[in-house]
Amino acid sequence: MEIYRILSEVVLLLFLFAAAFMDFRSGQLSLWFLLGAMAAGLLLRIIVGSISIKSLLLGIIPGAVLFLIALLTKQAIGYGDCLLLVVTGIFLGLTFTILLFLISLLFAGAASILLLAMKKRKRKEALAFAPFILAGYVGVLLLS
Quick check: helix, strand or coil at residue 74? Predict the structure, then answer.
């Protein structure tokens, strides 16, 4: 059972690395890429036998809430970032996804302040969030 947990962690790490690269380069995340990541997460949870409808629905709540916020704010938060959080919810569940999101926000906030102070970014300029989700996941791995 331990091998599947490690495999799941590695697969999610690879997906997040690819998403961070994609988001950093183009400012977008492919819907097909995100759907593939969701399918991989579901498949791994089925293989491990740790899938229940309740835990799955709880895991995707942070991404779903963020998606609603994105709709209400005319996509101040990108839909791809919301779906990426759904992916992490499928892999990690509710508690670790919330922890991942909070750590990601801390990293993004610190980077934003630094970039603004160095005059590398303007206040309303978008910042790729997937690299911070990757950093947040590394933080979750180190804390767990």
Answer: coil
Consecutive H or E run containing 50: none
The token pair that represents 28 in the structure block: 């977008």
At residue 62, the pLDDT reads 94
Could you list the residue range(s) of the whole structural domain that residue 27 is in? 2-143
Cβ proximity of 86 and 38 under 8 Å: yes
Q: Which CA distances in Å does 102 have to 36, 51, 54?
A: 25, 24, 22
15 closest CA partner among 4, 23, 27, 3: 23
| Residue 91 identity | F
Q: Considering the entire predicted model, what is its pTM?
A: 0.90
Q: For the residues 52-70, what does the mean pLDDT come to?
A: 90
Number of domains in the chain: 1
